[in-house]
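INTERNAL AUDIT FORM
Audit reference: QA-55
Scope: verify that the stored structure record matches its stored sequence.
Auditor: D.O.
Record contents follow.
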Amino acid sequence: MGHDPNDPADGVTGRDRLAALEQVSERLREVTEKVEHLTIALQSRDVIGQAKGILMERYGLTGEQAFELLTVTSSNTNTKLLQVAVELVTTGRLSETP
């Protein structure tokens, strides 16, 4: 006879299988969330890099100087750095006021 996966004689109960499935499901949720966060981080990095490139070309700045200008603008306008970068990339302008 073949092996019956529901046979309690194998020492693994339905409850054990359910617990294992719940653990796998929770781990999958955690990994999915991490992938989403990393995707957002990569997209943010790309936009900030584009903004730095615009400032470097426009004003002859180094990458470090361009990033400093973005962070100072972010601080002065009380705007998140990513939003400052998005605005520069989409409009060509840096925010001056909050």
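Auditor finding: record pair retrieved intact. The domain at 36-92 is CATH 1.10.10.10 (Arc Repressor Mutant, subunit A).
Action required: none
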